[in-house]
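Why this split exists: single-chain examples teach little about how molecules sit against one another. For that reason, every record in the complexes split bundles all components of an assembly together and asks for one structure covering all of them. Below is a record exactly as it appears in the raw files.
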Amino acid sequence: MLSVSGISKTFGSRGWGAKPVKAVDDVSFELGGGQSLGIVGESGSGKSTLARVISRLIDPSAGTILFEGKDITSITPAHFVRRPERRSIQYVFQDAGDNLTPHLTAFDAIADPLRRLLGLKDVKAPVEALAASVALGKSLLDRYPHQLSGGQKARVGIARALASKPRLLILDEPTAALDVSVQAAVLKLLHGLRSELGLSYLLITHDVEVVRLMCERVIVMRQGRIVEEGATADVLAAPKTDYGRTLMASVPRLKPISTVTPGLAT
Amino acid sequence: MLIIEDLTIHFSTRRGLVQALDRVNLEIAPGEVVGLVGESGSGKSVLSYAISGLLDAAAQVVSGRIQWYGKTIEPVRERRATRVAIAQIFQNPRGSLNPIRSVGRQLADVAGRSRVKSLMESVHLDPVKAAQYPFELSGGQCQRISIALALGCEPELLIADEPTTGLDVTTEAAVMALIDELSASRRMSTLLVTHNLALAAVHCDRILVMHAGQIVENAPVEILTQTPRHPYASRLLAATPQHSATAADLQTVPGNLPDLAGPLPPCRFATRCDRRQPDCDLTTPPLVTIAPNHLVACRHPLC
């Protein structure tokens, strides 16, 4: 479904004597239909840049992206907005609170992609159906983002991304800003939607536990490169690289759990 | 030594009187790391602001007091006279730094120029970044600067309000190791406010669970994470991702926090509780000792 090969992204230098930054360096991977792939790594490892390249918000410096067999690399970000692929690849941004337009109600935020990407005129019924699919009460649709809680804003962000019936969702830290109970609810929702709608997920996070619950495969990135790749259970239980081991050992744990070797738990 | 007795704080707002804290009792001994956990909106930040003396004038101290080595200190900013060696790490790192001074200068202000390099290294930041301004750094890097600022003043009590939210696990581990080390070597007391129970479990000696402005359980960390007695503490623990094998098994805490501006039931957790009995609706359950060092505010605790 999604095939990424040799993607690199170098950001030009700004300012006196600054050097160009190679944010993503020769990254390749495959994502099948209905699969879920996690990308973990520390901040600055190039996770979000990679996601922005794949969703064609920015241009890669090198490499190709095939989406359902079609090369989407050569389409510029300005043109991609009007392409049918835009509907199929949707992005759920980090911290929904900052990424909802403050002067649009929840209803209009969800209706916006329906009007713009699908050209629908009568959006009332589909908006209500989308709100129901993310368990967002009808009474909340008239509210503005500042009147919604963190979990409700996250649900609006997800409903908005689902509006154009995408086949690939790029989730950038979907639960980082949420507390533990709301995080559980949102993860459950995302998990249910995937099997219900047959979506593929590319999930970017630094929370290894979220990857364990949500993804079959995982990529570990460091300094723009893939340092480790494999089935989630294998990578989490027995990382092959020193960096992978450091990463897994840094995760605070309540008690040993089955997918993790007891030696790493505290 | 910090002792809080019966602290009740209300806020007058346009929506009415918000009962943000209700008879909060806690003690933090020198060198002790105490975790404060609970959902968003449960009053964790209000309590940490009260200890730091950063509450604004809308806060009314209805009852109780905060004592620091026997001296009473004021929770409201305008009225705090005594200077106390308390430092706070704030939730919003970018907003808490001065935008028009380089981060190195801000560190030099609190710790002196000679310590800037070592402070930055202690939070895993390259010292060349000292010349940069907050807007040039990422959120995680700003977070680390604010941690270095708080630790640079060598506080006797550190209030760390979600100090590692937004940091990746490797940096989180480094920052927490630094806090652990300062607690041990300089007998610094720490109040770690977080909703990450696993983080609290690894680094704290004791955990306080807060729900709707009340402390509902106060127990040593092994007891709280293995056999919590308050139904809310147990629900919160069950909601952590590590307690589920798959995403489908994830448990959520049922219901929502009650509206603190409205009339509140005697037990503020009752409407969300599956162990509710008729006597739960009579009087507020007091925080009582049910085992050595273990306090619970529930009429029908789990066993």
